[in-house]
From TrEMBL:
It comes from Vreelandella titanicae. This is GTP-binding protein. Zinc chaperone that directly transfers zinc cofactor to target proteins, thereby activating them. Zinc is transferred from the CXCC motif in the GTPase domain to the zinc binding site in target proteins in a process requiring GTP hydrolysis. GO terms for cellular component: cytoplasm. It catalyses: GTP + H2O = GDP + phosphate + H(+). Belongs to the SIMIBI class G3E GTPase family. ZNG1 subfamily.
């Protein structure tokens, strides 16, 4: 029995005043957004040239002249999307080909990413494609200094949109771009001039994508998947660390997770790095290692992506975690990767790569002793 096609979700985040609404206002009128459901904070911020598809006490779905669909977030995201899909079905409208969700500017998107993993209804109908973050060049540096949530928004994104670049000098734009690259070395950066940017840049950062999203009329083609492991993981963008020798701190049972940031200058608290393991990993080692990381430091594990090769499998697994929560492992075909090296990309706050490497060495050594 063929698995149902999951609808890709693109998350648009960014601090207050970063230009999210301006971009959405342009995007919802672009023809490339046809059959895209956009979940916005309020209709009043969007210039609506629309027809109301349906309205109830709980939900209204609006269709723009471009074919883009809009609804407002009313409390619970799961209920909002359920109601929107029910409204479309009641009008014999097709399900959306993708969903764009605008987050509140005051919060880290990690809670939303967790919800997409843990909510049963959402997890069986949607998949995360990308997190896109807006940072305005006028206030970006100060916002990053003052608000941890802003740093987290940048750190977990696949794509960074530097907005209002027409209002700043090249030097100021370059300074912000360099800082963003230190916070998130793997993210694509795009400069937004006068609010103009194609909505097509939202899509295509997920691990698996249906090729193409649009319905071609060929059912076999419609359900085929292309795996883009390198584009999703981007392990080569990070400094690579490997298993470290055991230290007296670990051997004597000293407290774990007690590392402090190495400095107090801006962006030091966010650490993004790749941890690689050349040998096949014992499943028990992987489970124990990730369990202890999540138990002791889960709040500071903003996002984890990994391609893992285990001793009891011939094919790799893809892992995706946010703080304490991991999505169920996704089996990948052999042909999706070029070697059998396991690579873990960690985006953390106040967790050093040395901690991660030493803990892996501890459980790896313990497994060898047990055998």
């Amino acid at each position: 029995m063929q698995e149902p096609t999951l609808i890709p979700i693109n998350v648009l985040t960014g601090f207050l005043g970063s230009g999210k609404t301006t971009l959405l206002n342009r995007w919802v009128h672009q023809t490339s957004m046809a059959n895209t459901l956009v979940v916005i904070n309020e209709f009043g911020a969007i210039g609506l040239d629309h027809q109301l598809i349906t309205q109830s006490d709980e939900q209204a779905v609006i269709e723009m002249s471009s074919g883009c669909l809009c609804c407002t977030l009313r409390g619970d995201l799961s209920r909002t999307l359920q109601q929107a899909l029910e409204d479309l079905e009641a009008q014999d409208k097709a399900l959306p080909s993708r969903v764009v969700i605008e987050t509140t500017g005051l919060a880290s998107p990690t809670s939303l990413l967790q919800l997409l993993m843990t909510d049963h209804w959402l997890a069986h109908r949607f998949k995360l494609d990308s997190v896109v973050c807006c940072v305005d060049v006028a206030n970006g540096m100060g916002t990053l200094d003052a608000h941890r949530e802003s740093q987290q928004q940048v750190a977990v994104a696949e794509k960074l949109l530097i907005t209002k670049t027409d209002l700043a000098s090249e030097e100021v734009v370059s300074q912000l771009a360099n800082r963003l690259a230190r916070l998130n070395p793997a993210a694509e950066q795009w400069q937004v001039i006068n609010g103009e940017l194609s909505a097509d840049l939202l899509v295509g950062a997920g691990l698996a994508r249906h090729a193409p999203y649009a319905d071609t009329g060929n059912e076999a083609h419609k359900d085929s998947q292309e795996y883009q492991v390198e584009k999703w993981l981007k392990a080569g963008s990070y400094v690579v660390h490997q298993a470290a020798p055991l230290t007296p701190r670990l051997l004597t049972g000293a407290p774990l997770g007690s590392y402090q940031p190495e400095g107090t200058s801006h962006s030091d608290n966010i650490k993004s790095f790749c941890f690689s393991v050349n040998e096949l990993i014992e499943p028990e080692v992987l489970e124990n290692w990730l369990d202890i990381l999540m138990s002791l430091m889960g709040d500071n594990m903003l996002r984890i992506k990994a391609i893992v090769h285990l001793t009891d499998r011939d094919t790799p697994l893809a892992l995706h975690g946010v703080q304490h929560i991991f999505h169920p492992p996704a089996p990948l075909p052999k042909t999706s990767v070029g070697d059998r090296v396991s690579r873990f990309v960690f985006i953390t706050q106040n967790v050093t790569p040395e901690t991660v490497a030493e803990l892996y060495s501890f459980f790896h050594a313990s497994q060898e002793v047990a055998q």
